[in-house]
TrEMBL record:
The keyword Coiled coil applies. This is Uncharacterized protein. Keywords: Coiled coil. It comes from Stylosanthes scabra. It comes from the Eukaryota. The lineage of its organism: Eukaryota, Viridiplantae, Streptophyta, Embryophyta, Tracheophyta. Residues 131-172 form a coiled coil.
Amino acid sequence: MTGVQGAWKRYKTRIKKKHFEPYLGNIENMLANRPLEILEVQFRKLIAYWSIPAVKAMCVVNSENRKKQKWRHKMGPINFANVRVDLDKLTYFQEARETPTDAFQKVFGKENPGRVRCFERTVTKISLKKNKEINEIKKQSEDKVASLKTEVHDYKQRVEGLEDLVRLLLQQNSPDMNIDEALSLLHPNNHLQIVHKIQI
């Protein structure tokens, strides 16, 4: 029910911003640009209501108050005094060495079917479990990629070490040889090109 109320409030706000405020002082334009899903008779009543001075003043006050808010109240009909009492109870049970789960359930009650407490309305136990599994798979993939990068780095260092060793041996045993050309044979791409030329 709370979700329906919120949706209805947002719908009215959208209608007012799009079809009332841009045409202030001109009822004909308001009616000409009214939403097609609202009957003209109903929209006239809505225009009359929004045009009442007391309603206008109330809207201005509410708008200014919303701008001053640092934190939005999202507890619905539950006021913060009751929340404070529940938090005090929760602290009491935790100090009495209750497990966090047991203490939470004693204060707030058990979970309602199909809902996950402390998450938004669209989150369910199934979607939460699915997101957890996806995050685990992502973490495993990232760990695997990091491991492969480390292995590649190690292999590169080994190959560079071998090249230095071969260069040193060639310099000692064959001073007249083109060492860079000889070392190029160690690279797989060059080796495949030479094999291909021989086969041709």
